Amino acid sequence: MKILCLPYTHTLSHVSRLLVVARVLRERGHQIIFAGAGPATKSRFIENEGFATLPFYQIDPNHLFDRIRDGKMKFVAEDELDRMIQSDREVYREVRPDVVIADGRFSSMISAGIDNIPHAAIVNVSSTEYRALPYVPFFDWMPQSLARHLYPLNLWLEMQLFDNVANSFKKWSIQHGLKKTVTATNCLTGNDLTLMADVEEYFPTRNLPDDYHYIGPLTWQQGMAPPAWWPPQTSGKSLIYITMGTTWVGGSFENLYHLIRKHGLAAIITTGGQLKDAADKGLKTVPGEIYLEEFIAGEEAMKACDLVVCHGGNGTIYQALEQGRPIIGIPTIPDQDFNMRRVEALGVGIKIKPADLEKDPRVLVAAIRKILDTPTYRENAEGFSRKLQGLKPADKAADLIERTFSKN
């Protein structure tokens, strides 16, 4: 099959999950083409894997994430969605794909539906209408035993509100008579196949249709060579891995750097390419104390560390749990906050509010000390790690794509 992959290439997590599946599909003989090339995107990671990449229109991440962080339910303007749909369709006409697979491309359900192209998507349970846990816990002020009974009402209310405020998706569905109504709630899912990069123990669902499948976390190994200083030397100190993704705006890498050194910890800090002037600020690797890199092989860093500090991204959380490492999350968008509520509920980590960190950076040191001094966090993470072993999510995704769409 000729398969067109549509990630939101300004965010590495949406690129990396598709890359993991695309590798397997290419090995099985399918032709894989990506869209998403352009300045300031993560398309270089796609090109490094040897995939052809075409340009198309994407919303500026500063505009998109600012709206999301500000709690604006209408996260995309009508003219932006219109332009995304038209851009999708231009790529379809050029590529003529047999199948479209999207990750984070919330126009693709509509565009593929209009052009009648088979369509799949990789998504988290939190971005589906079948999630069993509220995205916005309206009744969190109640005792948990009572709030749980109100989950169905909570879910109905939040979806109704979201879909009616961000109603551009419904308008397009009605205008073009699409067979599947697209809404703000389900716009990241697939018309014909939805691959949920989660496990049920982490994110449960309810009333799941037959074309929705848990495949497990799609964690990406970049195949990067280790830095010259590897392996890290810590002089007996606990080693913290600090990785804030590629879109973090919740704090200062400079503050984190000095905080770690001041309190006698050892850390690997990856900046995701966000810190361009580290040398000018006097931030550098100090062997035995702190190691500063733009990117590093995450799996190897997590194996070497005692705990992970991150922004609460789904992929980073799963990567940490695969290695049995507890987590401190500093979420800045609702998805990350949702993830961290689950981390705390499972007893594998602690959430810190960005405002609390900004007010007093020592809250991070206190959380680090608490996790290091409380063995149950590590024990719970190691227990969850055992549940993630042997899942082979990329193979399962490829199997489902072939079973659903193959002409043979």
TrEMBL record:
Organism this protein belongs to: Geoalkalibacter halelectricus
InterPro entries reported for this sequence: EryCIII-like_C, UDP_glucos_trans
Pfam families: EryCIII-like_C (PF06722)
Gene3D superfamilies: Glycogen Phosphorylase B
Regions that span the bilayer: none
Annotated CDD domains: GT1_Gtf-like
Domain Erythromycin biosynthesis protein CIII-like C-terminal: 276-385
Protein name: UDP glycosyltransferase
